[in-house]
Amino acid sequence: MSRYWSDVVHALTPYTPGEQVQMSGLIKLNTNENPYPPSPLAIAAMQAAAGEQLRKYSDPSNAALKDTLAAHFGLRREQVFVGNSSDEVLAHTFHALLKHDLPLLSPDISYSFYPTYCSLYGIRNVQVPLNAQFEIDIADYQQPCGAIIIANPNAPTGIALTLAQIEALLQAHPAQPVVIDEAYVDFGGESAAALVNRYENLLVVQTLSKSRSLAGLRVGFALGHADLIAGLERVKNSFNCYPLGQVAQAGAVAALQDVAYTRQTSEAIIASRAWLTQQMQGLGFEVLPSKANFIFARHPTHDAATLAAGLRERAILVRHFKQARIDQFLRISIGTDEECAQLVAALQALL
After folding, report:
1. Please, what's the largest Cα pairwise distance for the chain?
2. Which residues of the chain, if any, have pLDDT below 50?
3. Nearest C-alpha neighbor of 244 from the set 59, 54, 55
4. Is the pTM of this model over 0.85?
């Protein structure tokens, strides 16, 4: 605490990311990183970009990356926004689109950065409870609001809404911006990007951190009506006109173009998720139905914090949340098949 802090800083409760422990032999299943390396084409493109030209500023318009994304999703350049991670894209989104007289609606159990952004930007937030099955019930959002944000698939539950449910939400709130945060959509979800040209109030946010194995590159993007994107650009250019460097832009373009590699690694993770779910259920765990690159599981007779500590002693990291309703769950990222097998063996020893 400091007497030089502003009132905003005093009031903030910062987001707490998953641990980034640096030790050899660690099985790291706590931060939803992709267990497979980035596309070889992306690595080659980044190596080629890391040359003498780094002395110059990168393209502030991100034209090549925006054109690649536009082509990938069947949109126009002016419908695409890019930023330094989807967290930065979300930060600009909260600032530009989600502060209104009526409150912002979001799930009570979801990405814990959302309340932090609301506190930072002075946004009134009403958290809508998940139902008894930890699902988002669209009917619960039939209430006055200024905007809505939903992670789909949701985090940390991994449960996904269908495209029909998202469309019903959009139709019920035509006068409010609706943000669908799709960090994990490539692992079995349905992307609302298909609805962008039909609903001018829809903004879809994605990242290259998960399915493209580029968490260390920090590239995120948003898709939406040109007017929504223009609002994001106004805010971004009031903070930093050069959020993405040349290496990041080159790597992102190549990763997006290597569709076959993304499909291959995502399908491998989906298969490993199915195997791990079956094994966990065989050990007595309740595992929520996941469309993400992680599972959310609890055991009826074993405390989650104790299990997490026991796994840590065996050099396996998983994520435990202390939040009400989910404090007996563990969120476990999908690792390689070998890592998943070691996790199961460790749990067998602990139970």
Report:
1. 59
2. none
3. 59
4. yes
